[in-house]
Every structure is written in C-alpha cells, then in structure tokens.
C-alpha cells in the first residue's frame, strides 16, 4: 500500500462518523414509516366516526329547534344558548332536582357494591364452607340473566314492601351483593394475593374480619376502583329499572327526566333535550377521566382482560 493510500485511510478513520440523532432516552429517532402513518390515520378516522353522534348532539344543543333536523353537519350557523336555560326549568322541577336524585342513587349503589361485593368475594376466595363451588357457580349464572327476567318479580316484591316511588329498590339490592360481575372481578383479584399474608396475620392472632379489613381490603384498591367506576357509569345511565320503579316526577333521575322532553301528544323540545343530555354526560366523562388509570390497572390485574 502506497503512502497516499495510507494517508487517505487514516484521514477517513479519523473523520467522525455521522450517526442519526438520538432521543433523550438514547434511542435513535426514526421517521414514521408509511404503514404506521396509514394505521394512525385509520385510528383517528375511526375515533371521529365514533364521536360524531356526540359532536352532533353538542352542536344541536346550540341550535334552534327549527334548525336541528333541517341542517346537516357539525358546523354552527346560529348560536342558541337559550336551550340550556330553558331546558333547566322546562320540566315540573328544575333539572338540578334530577341531578341530585341521580347522585343519591349512584352514591348508594357504589357504596353498596363496594361493601357487599368485596365481602362476598373474600368469602369465595378465602373461606371454606359447604356447597362453596355450587354457590359460586350459581352466582356466575346470575350474570347471564337479563334484567327483563327479574324485573316483574322484583316489582311485585317491592310493591308489597311499599318501596315504589322511592330510591330503595335501586339501592338496597346493591347491599345484598346482587352484581355477580363485580364479585367475580374481586374474587379473581383476591386469588392473586399470596396466602402467606393471611397465614402471617393468623399467627399474630388475627381472624377473618381483621385479615379482610387490615390486609386484603387495602390491597384491593385497583379492583375497588374498577367496581366504583363501572357502577357509577352503569347506574348513572340506567333507564329501564329507574323508569319502572320511579313514577313520581319528583323522584325522577336524569335518564327518566330526559325522556320527559319527548312528548308524542304535543310539541317536543329537542333543543332542550340535547342541552340537558350534554350536561348529563359531564359527570360520566369526569369519572372516566379521573379513574382511567385505576380502571386499566384494575382490569389488568383481576383477570378481566
């Protein structure tokens, strides 16, 4: 090799190599490939299609009644904010009454499911008693029963107790562990906890109540959060059972009150309906936004996935 060739090789080896820029985490930045761009674009399009009815409802709540079904699209030509003020006081009671009624029912249902379902789940997961497997199988079968099969005997029972037009038929059954789905969810979570914790507490003289309250229950926070969020959303949007048991306008909840805006015998106020429907979505969105992290963690750690 000649002297010129050696000089060229040494100069190339001494020249700093050009490397792609690295991200702060140390990984090389890669431009998104076309398949990735197409996939993300498809996901965004699917989200827009799924959210279009909600966007249309929000926009329609700001339109006059005469323009709701005559104009298409989600762009506003006129702004009618009076739908919110008129819808708030359009029914027999202010809409705050129905929001308060729903809040009472939801709060009672959440507390009932958290208390009753957690205790029942601990019994199935940790206690040994006769016909345990049979009772657990029957509990799972109740998940498959639709509410339409149970609503008639329930109505007869609650009518004999004098509970019609009260919140008791919507709250009291929750304290009797009637939601098998949440029981199964918590049983799967408790079975994943090591039994060595129970045995160590039992050596210290703790019984089942103390083990449940001091050891198992604090570790069940992801499952409890999942139960609370699902109960809140399902109870807040429940229409059928609340329509059956609540017939007095003073006890209406939000879903039943929204139905009152539609009158087949007279004019229907769709603008006020959409305005109050938009307001009724706010608590659900807030519950999901603040509990999303706990919801994902609870589903991932309870076998619900």
Descriptive overview:
By secondary structure, the protein is mostly helical. The chain has helices spanning 3-14, 34-60, 82-88, 95-126, 132-143, 147-161, 168-171, 180-191, 196-203, 208-219, 221-236, 240-245, 254-259, 270-301. It has two domains: 35-80, no CATH class; 93-301, Orthogonal Bundle (MetI-like fold). Helix content is 66%, strand content 0%. α4 (95-126) crosses α8 (180-191). The longest helix has 32 residues, at 95-126.
At a glance:
By secondary structure, this protein is mainly α. The chain contains 14 helices and no strands.
Spans of at least 5 consecutive residues whose pLDDT stays below 50 are none
Compute the gyration radius: what is it?
29 Å
CATH superfamily of the largest domain: MetI-like
Query: What profile does the largest beta sheet have?
Result: none
How many strand segments?
0
Shape: globular
What is the fold's blueprint, element by element?
Layout lengths: L2 H12 L19 H27 L21 H7 L6 H32 L5 H12 L3 H15 L6 H4 L8 H12 L4 H8 L4 H12 L1 H16 L3 H6 L8 H6 L10 H32 L4
Helix pairs in contact: 2-14, 3-14, 4-8, 4-11, 5-8, 9-10, 11-14
Q: Tags for this entry?
A:
14 helices, 2 domains, mainly alpha
